[in-house]
Amino acid sequence: MVTTNQHVKRTAGESEAVELNPVFVRAGEATSLPKFRLPEAESLPETAYQIVHDEAMLDGNARQNLATFVGTWMDDQAQRLYLETADKNIIDKDEYPQTAAIETRCWTMLAHLWHAPDPDHTIGTSTIGSSEACMLGGLALKRRWQNARRAAGEPTDKPNLVMSSAVQVCWEKFCNYWDVEPRFVPISEDHKVLDGHDLESYVDQNTIGVVAIMGVTYTGMYEPVAQIAAALDKIQADTGLDIKIHVDGASGAMIAPFVQPKLTWDFALDRVVSINTSGHKYGLVYPGIGWVVWRDRAALPEDLIFHVSYLGGDMPTFALNFSRPGAQVLLQYYLFLRLGHEGYRRVQEAARDVAIYLSGEIAAMPALELWNDGSDIPVFAWRLRAGHTTNWTLYDLSDRLRMSGWLVPAYPMPDDLSNLTVQRIVVRNGFSRDLADAFLADLKAAVAYLDALDGPIPATRQHPGFHH
């Protein structure tokens, strides 16, 4: 074993070198390697491996990370396939035509799953994750709006996008990077998600679209897409404005078809023109893979699609990234074949069952009050019950749980509810009922410890907002 003292961040007084344990140094090797510049000489592969291995060992245990949506487990066959295909570049469709064909199969499967009118003749693409997929969906909305405005002889200089104040930060980035005014509809105790309420106050002739979220990052709750579409139908009847919906289904688009098959949220609604999802969340693939599919080819303006010559072939492409791994596309196809509709249903229902069990147990604790119960995607949040204590906060509870290895973030809700702090749990594939019971035992012990304090815990640092 090689011991190191490197930290995630470079801090004042931190050592400039990785010191090797003399017992394990090979003959002729340096006993110290610089941390922040290239070493002058080579190291043996075994030494370099051990250094990196030991550094990574200091990260948290992925199975106890209840903060992330990202997949942390795949089976042995997937691991083998990953290693066999790690060298494939998905963008090079001329060199890897079969991987390109499999990519098309995957998004066509999703188009069928999401009830596209003509799934075999629509269009979609893989991305590096659902954030890139959101960017592409937003760009298509903006370009459609621009083209329509230009055709009508109207100006195109003030586009806006309407969404919940609880959107994932990638939508704020989209608006910032592509000069679109974000119009945030604030959530509240009465309207915990964007539900169409007062929507007419936010949309106008410059609105490129409305984002509806299937699984809000803060809490896991679905936004009622059909209700939002109905509100937009009424707005069109009253004003003539025909405003389309992009569904951010980063998590829920891979949950709802299997767990809530009767829920209407996808291309079954005429106003929905594009849907994204994250293959590396509840698509169950390692990071990073995302997908975006359009209702039909007309929903993706042709002038956004590039036809480039790359390594000897003509390649149509619509993406923000160029060279990127092809292995995750093959892993997604593997899982589609491996699990099928029934397998995904069983996996997602198992995760939701654990979430509902956990939320029920937490709801019974006097110190905590649920915000939602995990019956949409298997994600739920709670707050400290009003009047329970002034000695500790959910940030203190998060710190106590971290001592037992559990990562459970505490963070303020978005604007208009920013004085409300919640904690959130994400139940993923592999978080079993046994692990849930182990977590509950540690949670109850942490609350009991904090409740036994005879005075408040000193506030030692400012807690930032949590974005994931």
From TrEMBL:
N6-(pyridoxal phosphate)lysine sites (modified residues)? 281
Under InterPro entries, the record lists: Glutamate_decarboxylase (IPR010107), PyrdxlP-dep_de-COase (IPR002129), PyrdxlP-dep_Trfase (IPR015424), PyrdxlP-dep_Trfase_major (IPR015421)
Q: Name one GO cellular component term.
A: cytosol
A Pfam family of the record is Pyridoxal_deC
Q: Name one GO molecular function term.
A: glutamate decarboxylase activity
The lineage's top-level taxon is Bacteria
- Cofactor requirements of the protein: pyridoxal 5'-phosphate
The record's EC number reads 4.1.1.15
What keywords is this UniProt entry annotated with? Decarboxylase, Lyase, Pyridoxal phosphate
Q: Which Gene3D superfamilies match?
A: 3.90.1150.160, 4.10.280.50, Type I PLP-dependent aspartate aminotransferase-like (Major domain)
Catalysed reactions listed for this entry? L-glutamate + H(+) = 4-aminobutanoate + CO2
Q: What biological-process terms (Gene Ontology) are attached?
A: L-glutamate catabolic process
Q: Which family does it belong to?
A: Belongs to the group II decarboxylase family.
**Per its record, how is this protein called by name?**
Glutamate decarboxylase
Q: Which organism is it from?
A: Brooklawnia propionicigenes
